[in-house]
Specification:
Layout (H helix, E strand, L loop, with lengths): L7 H11 L20 H8 L7 E3 L20 E6 L1 H6 L12 E5 L7 E3 L16 H4 E2 L2 E2 L12 E7 L1 H5 L10 E2 L1 H11 L8 E4 L3 H8 L11 E2 L4 H6 L4 E4 L17 H10 L2 E4 L4 H10 L3 E5 L10 E3 L3 E3 L1
Parallel strand pairs: 7-9, 8-10, 9-11, 11-12
Antiparallel strand pairs: 1-15, 2-3, 4-12, 4-14, 5-6, 7-13, 13-15
Helix pairs in contact: 1-9
InterPro entries: KFase/CYL (IPR007325), KFase_sf (IPR037175)
Keywords: Hydrolase
EC number: 3.5.-.-
Length: about 325
């Protein structure tokens, strides 16, 4: 795909037509590309467990996160409802010396490691599978494709594509670096791993490594390496079930068009039905993969079954 950087509308419309999966799994579908992740694929993924070593791919959920209030996205606020002090001082009203602690958390569902649900992005008023957006997501939530539908399904063969290590300098891609299909293919070849139907792909750019070292800066919404708009064909043609990155917005920022905002999202979610993860932390896994040369593994990354949600926090676990 070649880009006319002055014509985002035209490029988005063409990619939406070319890579649309509308109707592919029937008019009532609520899973999108997760339909590619079937029982056989899960068995394949489970067979990859050999050493039994596991890695959490989640960032922390606390006040030290990167959010700065854009679109009312804040870092999590964790509050204790009952503490050890309460148990000692008040007794809490329980008999025979019993005491306990309870807590509550308040946070946007997409403030840290998370999935974008199918109701998260629209294209010209259309949600996934061509449904009118106003009939899908209302003030009551996503009435059709709420992320709770995906909760049983996101477990299978994971593949790490460490583009930062293969293509970048010192394991990191610079902000604004557009990861193309050629970069993804070259990285897979360098790792000796295949990418195909039903896989859950994790792309490491190295940006999280850098901000962990240098400070958050503009991580939440600012310049970043990420997938090029031209990678839409690769995302569609490989028939992957899902993809996640270590960046805030999945695609390269600034975006590749003039006067555009997240154009790849506009193609991938409402038209392709692709499950997208953001702000994942692949660094410990990437070190292990580099050491043993194995870049595929069992991966489970179920969203919380929050009824009607258009996104969800997640603690992905990779097991090798």
């Amino acid at each position: 795909m070649t880009l006319d950087r002055t014509d985002p509308e035209g490029a988005i419309a063409e990619a939406a037509r070319t890579y649309s999966n509308w109707g592919r799994w029937g008019e009532d579908d609520v899973l999108g590309t997760l339909n590619f992740l079937d029982e056989a694929k899960r068995r394949q993924g489970a067979a990859l467990i050999r050493r039994g070593v596991s890695f959490s791919l989640s960032q922390s959920f606390d006040m030290n996160g990167p959010q700065k209030g854009w679109r009312r996205r804040t870092n999590p606020v964790h509050t204790m409802l009952d503490t050890g002090t309460d148990a000692v001082v008040t007794g809490q009203g329980f008999p025979h010396g019993l005491g306990g602690a309870d807590d509550v958390i308040a946070m946007p569902l997409q403030c840290s490691t998370q999935w974008d649900g199918l109701g998260h992005i629209f294209d010209h008023g259309k949600a996934w599978n061509g449904r009118p957006a106003e009939r899908v997501v209302t003030s009551e939530g996503d009435l059709v494709t709420g992320i709770e539908h995906m909760a049983p399904h996101v477990a299978g063969r994971g593949v790490l594509l460490d583009v930062g290590r293969v293509i970048g300098e010192d394991g990191e891609l610079p902000d604004g670096f557009a990861v193309t299909a050629e970069h993804l293919t070259a990285t897979a070849e360098a790792h000796g791993v295949s990418v195909g139907r039903g896989d859950i792909v994790l792309v490491r750019t190295g940006q999280l490594t850098r901000v962990r070292r240098d400070g958050w800066g503009e991580y939440a919404g600012g310049p970043a390496p990420g997938l090029s708009f031209t990678a839409a064909g690769w995302l569609h043609g490989t028939e992957i079930a899902a993809i996640a990155t270590d960046t805030w917005g999945f695609e390269v920022r600034p975006n590749e068009f003039e006067h555009a905002f997240q154009p790849l999202h506009q193609v991938a979610i409402p038209n392709m039905g692709l499950l997208i993860g953001e702000m994942w932390d692949p660094d410990a896994l990437a070190e292990d993969c580099a050491a043993d040369g194995v870049h595929d593994f069992w991966l489970t990354a179920a969203p919380l079954p929050i009824t009607g949600a258009v996104g969800s926090p997640v603690n992905p676990i990779a097991v090798k």
